[in-house]
Amino acid sequence: MKLSNRVGLYCLACSLLSPAAFAAYPDKPVHFILPFPPGGGTDTLGRAIGNRLGEGLGQQVVIDNRPGGGANIGADLAAHAPADGYTLFMVTATHAINATLYKNLPYNLEKDFVPVTELGTTAMVVVIHPTIPAKSVKQLIAFAKAHPGKLTHSSSGTGSITQLAGELFKSDTGIRMLHIPYKGGGPSVIALVSGEAAVGFATTPSCIVQIQNGSLVRHAGSGRHAEGRHPAAPRRLGEGAQIRRREEASRRDRPRSHRQQRRRVRRLHPQRDRQVGKGR
Question: What is the pTM of this model?
Answer without folding.
Answer: 0.68
